[in-house]
UniProtKB/TrEMBL annotation:
Domain of life assignment: Bacteria
Record-annotated DUF4031 domain positions: 3-77
UniProt xrefs under InterPro entries: DUF4031 (IPR025109)
Protein name: DUF4031 domain-containing protein
Length: 90
């Protein structure tokens, strides 16, 4: 199982956030997120939003650190990218 996380550089709700993704499947992503305590509501279209305070927990659990551009590339190449405004693939 390989999941990826970018640095917590995304502001929102008074905190900084990271994106947690899989390049294999959403099932893999959901399973990993559950093991680090991410609530289902943290899932947004194709990634989990992870607060900066939990970034190190995700890395310790095995998430591979990559840049934000790499996150988008991995999702796109895996066919898992779901940009805002586009319906989920069927």
């Amino acid at each position: 199982m390989t999941v990826y996380i970018d640095p917590p550089t995304w502001p929102g709700h008074g905190r900084m956030w990271s994106h947690l993704v899989s390049d294999v499947s959403f099932e893999e992503l959901h399973a990993f997120a559950a093991t680090i305590g991410c609530p289902p509501r943290a899932f947004e279209r194709d990634h989990y939003d992870v607060p900066e305070a939990h970034y190190a927990d995700a890395v310790r659990a095995g998430a591979r650190e990559v840049g934000s551009k790499e996150i988008v590339r991995l999702l796109t190449e895996a066919g898992l990218r779901r940009p805002k405004g586009r319906p989920a693939p069927r």
